[in-house]
Amino acid sequence: MKHTEKMQPGEGLPLSEVLDALPYNADGLIPAIAQQHDTGEVLMMAWMNRQSLDETLESGRVCYFSRSRRKLWRKGESSGQVQSLREMRFDCDGDTILLLVDQTGPACHTGRRTCFYSAVRGDRVEVVSAPMIDPDELYGK
């Protein structure tokens, strides 16, 4: 965010001004990375729009925008695996949001703690973590 590059700690801008100036894509979305606030573990990436940003900041419970369902997605509304916002940050370009969260249980729809459970190992991609819970159990199917 060019406006903040030369600022000193403690200096800032009005939140509404920053949210209005974010470089949302053609669908009105911006990427957000969720990271466990106390361990640094990267949990997931999802999309947010202005409405989901406002709701997240007002409620303290993370809300994304589901591209597949074309509606707001309150993390944990169907699984019970809620993300509570501890802090929201913006990267230097202002084109990605970092959400420091307190994650209840698994963050991934597969029942794993993180969505980043596939790792490159030489010439293969390997699964590196097991589900914490069966997805059918997680979603009551």
From TrEMBL:
Q: Which GO terms describe its cellular component?
A: cytoplasm
Keywords from the named record: Amino-acid biosynthesis, Cytoplasm, Histidine biosynthesis, Hydrolase, Magnesium, Metal-binding, Zinc
> What's the record's note on cofactor binding?
Binds 1 zinc ion per subunit.
- Span of domain Phosphoribosyl-AMP cyclohydrolase: 44-117
Residues annotated to bind Zn(2+): C92, C108, C115
Task: Share what the entry says about its subunit structure, partners included.
Answer: Homodimer.
- The entry's protein name is Phosphoribosyl-AMP cyclohydrolase
The organism is Candidatus Sedimenticola endophacoides
Supply the gene name.
Answer: hisI
